[in-house]
Amino acid sequence: MSTLDSLSRTTLQPGRRTPGMRGATFFFALMLSSVALADTPTDGVGRLSFGGGLRWTPNDYFNKRAQEEGFPPLVDGDQNPTAPLGAQGLVSFGYGAFQWLEVAIDLFAGYESFVLENKGAAFNSFTYGALIGVRLTRYDFPFRGLVPYLGVQTGPTLVSVSSPTVPGPERLVQGFSGNAGFAYRITERVAVFLDVRYLYARAFVADLAGRNVGGVFGSLGVSIIFPAAEKRDLEVPGFGGASHL
Predict the structure, then answer these.
(1) d(Cα 135, Cα 223) in Å, to the nearest integer?
(2) How far apart are CA 46 and CA 166, in angstroms?
(3) Are 216 and 57 in contact (CB under 8 A)?
(4) 3-state secondary structure (DSSP) of residue 90
(5) In this structure, what DSSP letter does residue 43 have?
(6) What contacts 139, CB < 8 A, 6 or more positions away?
(7) pLDDT at 31
(8) pTM of the shown model
(9) Where along the chain do its domains lie?
């Protein structure tokens, strides 16, 4: 009997399963069972999140204009011109308005500094404000504990870029933000999250050009979750039945 015939008898006989097939069957059964046990609607669920991390603001246009005006950004060795990593933090509030939609309000603050040749001391860039918008999200999706989301927000943003030799006024501008991430519930009420956000907000640096003072915000943090209240049947006299609240 040839090796091919032996292999075909082993793998293709009706009702006979190889170890690989049994493992795959078990894996898919486990996934299906976890999905069946999961998928919690968002509506009525409250959320309070605290986080922070790094802020990175690429400013190629500003760097080019500064170079043309004779104030090139200082370079650290062979690295990119200093539009360096900064720090940022946020507090976020959310409430599930619909099964897949959460209304979110985020308070945030960010900071970075950069240096231009021939401009003296370092510039300090501050950005802080409040954003309101919505998140497309679902609890326990696609498996128990996971909460993915995708959101858009806008709101008033205070920005300031200045140095001791080049003062800059604080300005109120409109910020626009898009973010995505996920949380993982370690208990019914506590979750850890990873959030990546892009914020667009501009400030003007005197005698040079506009500069983006938003950028990419990467955050790690903790969320406190407030489960939706259980709906109750309320007896309404004269209506012959219960109203579902």
Answers:
(1) 15
(2) 45
(3) yes
(4) strand
(5) T
(6) 39, 40, 41, 42, 45, 147, 185
(7) 42
(8) 0.74
(9) 46-226
Quick check: 151 and 178 in contact, CB under 8 A? yes
pLDDT 10s digits, 91-112: 999 999 999 999 999 999 999 9
Q: How many Cα neighbours within 13 Å face the side chain of 79?
A: 10
The pLDDT of 68-77, averaged and rounded, is 74
Whole-Å CA distances, 240 to 189, 191, 231, 234, 235: 38, 43, 19, 11, 8
Tokens 């009525």 found at: 44
Is pLDDT above 90 for 47?
A: yes
Chain centroid to CA 190: 17
**For residues 25 and 33, is the Cβ–Cβ distance under 8 A?**
no
Which class does domain 46-226 fall in? Answer: mainly beta
Residue 130: both structure tokens together: 């409040």
